[in-house]
Design a protein that fits this description.
alpha/beta, Rossmann fold, Cytochrome-c3 Hydrogenase, Chain A, domain 2, 2 domains, 9 helices, about 25% helix, binds iron/sulfur cluster
């Protein structure tokens, strides 16, 4: 559903323009039943070339490793087996969304269905496919993580693969494409001015930065969510909700409420990536002391209370 929001151009026009033939998708294709089973068989036999296999959702391995909690209707075989066999004949394999990449929300808690991601079980390498798996292209599973994942990330990944420009150097250590994983959600967040002065929101509707009190981990989460907004203009933090690091393995179990910042002695436990704690503390106390009244007041309000004042002209 997120992918259908791809714009300028839309998904199907993009595929047409780049010579990608859309073989099948359970929600977007008209083929069902026997037609799909025949298509899958032709992929396995090599009669139909399978350039890119995209998998959505985590894969249940239960009960007892059989995968029979999730059968592919009409085939008498579990999805677990289908995915393993199709991955073995695909030139590229792409996991779409954090469930397919690392397990995601369906693996939270006791995970009774024993679900895992395609090539990861949480942050541990090895899922439905072993750590050593390489598709026909020689690449591991490409992890387009995100919950949901950004339509632009999926389309760009597919086009890069199609054009042979997504190689091992273009993916990060968790196999996420670097074109989005080299950014932090914090980059271009509209609350950056509040962050600079540690002017913090106290409630979700407040304008201030959500790191200190409301659980935002945008300074640690990878993603260009604020550089490449969703649907042309949105992002979690733009909408006033903290970034919960949905592009990372095990984000689903932070061990505290998503909208709370865990603290030790009043200091947030999770500090920005690359920043030594002592520096952060020194900068934070300095910037808090220097917070302009405008920023401090607006931070705990749901609208601008004090607008920026133009500088008085010199006489
Ligand atoms: S709300 Fe989050 S992403 Fe935005 S400035 Fe604050 S820490 Fe950064
Ligand atoms: S802002 Fe954070 S939680 Fe929201 S989509 Fe981006 S990475 Fe995921």
């Amino acid at each position: 559903m997120s992918l259908l929001c791809a714009e300028d151009p839309n998904l199907l026009d993009t595929f047409d323009a780049n010579g990608l033939t859309f073989l099948w998708h359970p929600a977007l294709s008209i083929e069902t039943g026997a037609e799909v089973r025949r298509l899958l068989e032709r992929c396995l036999s090599g009669e139909q070339r399978l350039d890119i296999l995209c998998v959505e959702g985590s894969i249940p391995r239960g009960p007892r490793g059989t995968g029979r909690y999730h059968m592919l209707a009409g085939t008498g075989r579990p999805m677990l087996d289908w995915v393993r066999e199709l991955a073995a004949v695909a030139h590229h394999v792409v996991a779409v969304g954090t469930c397919a990449t690392y397990g995601g929300v369906t693996t939270a808690g006791e995970n009774p269905s024993d679900s895992v991601g395609l090539q990861y079980d949480g942050s541990h390498a090895g899922g439905v496919l072993p750590e050593a798996f390489r598709s026909g292209s020689g690449l591991p599973v490409i992890n387009v993580a995100g919950c949901p994942t950004h339509p632009g990330w999926v389309v760009e990944t597919l086009l890069m693969l199609e054009n042979g420009v997504l190689d091992q150097d273009q993916i990060d250590p968790l196999a996420r494409p670097r074109f989005y994983a080299d950014h932090l959600v914090h980059h271009a967040c509209p609350k950056n001015e509040y962050y600079e002065y540690k002017a913090s929101a106290e409630r979700l509707s407040d304008l201030g930065c959500m790191m200190e009190n409301l659980g935002c981990v945008g300074t640690q989460a990878v993603g260009d969510c604020n550089i490449r907004p969703w649907n042309g203009e949105g992002s979690c933090t733009r909408a006033g909700y903290p970034c919960i690091n949905c592009t990372a393995p095990e984000f689903e179990e932070p061990h505290h409420a998503f909208t709370e910042t865990p603290k030790f002695a009043g200091i947030p436990v999770g500090l920005p990536t690359d920043m030594p704690k002592a520096w952060f503390m020194a900068l934070a106390s300095l910037s808090k002391a220097a917070t302009p009244k405008r920023i401090g007041t607006n931070a705990t309000s749901d609208r601008i209370r004090i607008p920026p004042q133009p500088k008085a002209k010199k006489p």
